[in-house]
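Hello,

Our lab assistant flagged a job as stuck in the queue for most of the afternoon. It eventually completed. Since we weren't sure the result was trustworthy after the delay, we are filing this so someone can double-check. Below is the sequence as submitted and the structure that was eventually returned. Let us know if re-running is recommended.
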Amino acid sequence: MKPIIGLVPLIDEKKESFWMLPGYMDGITEAGGIPVMLPLTHDEGEIEELLDHMHGILLTGGHDVSPALYNEKPLKECAQTIEERDRMEMILLKKTLERDMPVLGICRGIQFLNVFTGGTLYQDLPTQRPTKTEHHQSPPYDIPVHEVTIKDDSKLFKLLGKSSIRVNSYHHQAIKDIGEDLKIMAISEDGLTEAVEMPDKRFVWAVQWHPEFAYKKDDVQRKIFEEFVKSMMG
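-- returned structure --
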């Protein structure tokens, strides 16, 4: 049986709609899983029931994480936040980790995982941590724009057997102080955290870059999706 993976919905408030980038779903499908977009809910009973039918969770990109979750006031450069999504992901992650279900976080996903575990974020890199490294590229988004160094004691290094890779990059927030129970797997040229894991869990990985845009051209990004799906098939 193929594992079923729940994806946190993307939200368009202007159009009053939920939606999903095909790359998230296709990346999972090609890796051997079945992707399902979850409803937006913070009802604990509903989330428990949903998880009863899932084998893993993918934390997608999207809006900024509310600074209130890491005890900061929003800067004017902080973009729109969605309280309903923040509330849902807090419950969803708690329940998922309690069950030791595999989790993959992408972009906002790494940021939210860090905040969930007690870490903090740069609310806006250009103003709080200016750098010459490209972190907010223009399309097409499947082109790598900077290098990341992979720590040789990480699960990502074990998977890839590489000490560095080049990645795409499209974000204005990033991890500042690392959360408890997280271990850094990779850092960017300018020292930002680019990938993390929870080493005591079966599979909890998160990356700051966007494998959903690059997996068709880049074996590294495809392997990340494959390892995620494989972790549910043991």
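-- support follow-up --
The delay was a queue issue, not a problem with the job. The result is valid. The chain has a mean pLDDT of 97. The first strand starts at residue 4 and ends at 7.
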